[in-house]
Structures are given as C-alpha cells and as structure tokens.
Amino acid sequence: VQLVESGGGVVQSGGSLRLSCAASGFTFSSAAMRWFRQTSGKERELVATIFSGNLSRRTNYADSVKGRFTISRDNAKNTVYLQMNSLKPEDTAVYYCNAVYGFHNYWGQGTQVTVSS
C-alpha cells in the first residue's frame, strides 16, 4: 500500500495550492479518504473527508477550512485532491493523506505547506 502526497510548497497569504495523493495497493474507490494536518507540538487535525461508494460525493470539513478548501477524488486515477484557496498563515502545517479501507488505516508521508504573511 502506498499513499504519495504532492503539491505542497510555499505560498503567500491569500494564495492557493492543490495537494494530490496518489494511492495504490488497495481498492481506492472503496476507501474513505481524508486529509489531516499537523504542526510541531500539536495533535494531528482532521481537515477534510470524502466518502466512498454511493456516498462518494459526500464531504466533511473542519470549521477552520470550510468555504476555503475543497476535497475531491478521481477513482479512475486513484487520486484524492485538496484544493486550498484563500490560504492563511495558520494553515501552515504538514498535510497528510489518509485512507480508511475496511479495518485498515493507511497514511502518506506528508507534504509541507507554508503560508507566508
């Protein structure tokens, strides 16, 4: 199983980034996919969720990112995305892709997002 994030970087406040997470080794369309983020000394925070199967258009967001971030998935490409707009310095973190597949919980290695003021 692999989850490989990409798309992180440095952006100015108010800017946008799109994160991607390419998955392999499991049936992607059957997995709920999530994005978390973590800053030094803090617990990992759930940012966004997109469900699987018949609920695959259903999404949830943390209050702190509602209206600014959009999670989506392309089951044909086994990829989940996180479009981040109107970025703020407090969005600075390492962003992790997570897959919930049956009883399994898989993680990517993380990608750094830095928002400068």
Could you characterize the architecture of this molecule?
The protein is globular and about 40 Å long. The mean pLDDT is 96. Strand 5 (45-50) and strand 6 (59-61) form a beta hairpin. The protein has 117 residues and is mostly beta strands. It has strands spanning 2-6, 9-12, 17-24, 32-38, 45-50, 59-61, 69-74, 79-84, 93-101, 104-107, 111-116. The strands form 2 sheets. Strands 2, 4, 5, 6, 9, 10 and 11 form a 7-stranded mixed beta sheet that branches.
SS strand fraction? over 45%
* Helix content percent band: under 10%
Rg from alpha-carbon coordinates? 13 Å
Order of helices and strands: EEEEEEEEEEE
Largest sheet: 7 strands, mixed
Enumerate the spans where pLDDT stays under 50 for 5 or more consecutive residues: none
Choose one word for the global shape: globular
Structural class: mainly beta
How many E-type strands? 11
What is the terminal-to-terminal distance? 37 Å
- Mean pLDDT comes to 96
Give me the number of helical elements: 0
Descriptors:
117 residues; 0% helix; mainly beta; four-stranded antiparallel sheet; single chain; 11 strands
